[in-house]
Amino acid sequence: MTVLRENLILDLYYASETTSGEKVAKLTVVLRDNTTGADVHTSTLLRTNAGENDVYTIGYQNISNASDPLLLKLEGFFRAAGKELFEKLMAKTNEMIASDLNPNSTWMGQHGLRIAYGVPLDGYIPESVFE
Questions:
Q1: Average pLDDT over residues 9-19
Q2: Helices in the chain by DSSP H: which ranges?
Q3: CA-to-CA distance for 46 and 109, rounded, in angstroms?
Q4: Contact in structure between 86 and 63 (CB atoms under 8 Å)
Q5: Are 94 and 12 in contact (CB under 8 A)?
Q6: Rg (CA), the chain
Q7: What is the DSSP string of 56-81?
């Protein structure tokens, strides 16, 4: 079954760790099909603090259907994403932590602290990815 762009919604999660003495921030983006609730794409973006120079990489990626052209485009977009996308998502994370973090509205999941849930893709993924 082909995934339709208009049915996709975005969830964003934050986690951090220290690996070999370096701080690693992880932002996991999960795209879900709003009609079925199924996760159709997952990408984890990483920022490693290596002293003066931060290093931006892609970690875990998963797509539900490797023959779906839209999911392949999204995989390519996140694979090529670097500092700009990471920092945009991190700004959203910092905003949430500064304003909404409390025991009654905070949810931890398998990917970390939930920052956003069920939001439209507008503003996160450029329209050019879908062309």
A1: 94
A2: 69-80, 83-100
A3: 18
A4: no
A5: no
A6: 15
A7: EEEEEEEES-TT-HHHHHHHHHHHH-
pLDDT tens figures, 39-64: 999 999 999 986 678 999 999 999 99
Higher pLDDT, 72 or 110: 72
Angle at 94 between CA 26 and CA 78, to 5 degrees: 40
- Dihedral of CA 106/108/113/119: which sign? negative
pLDDT of residue 102: 67
Q: What is the pLDDT of residues 87-98, one digit of tens each?
A: 999 999 998 888
What's the chain's length in residues?
A: 131
85: left (phi over 0), alpha (psi -120 to 50) or beta: alpha
SS3 128: helix
Helix (H, G, I), strand (E, B) or coil at 53: strand
Query: Would you call 119 exposed, middle or buried from its count of C-beta atoms within 10 A (0-12, 13-18, 19+)?
Result: middle
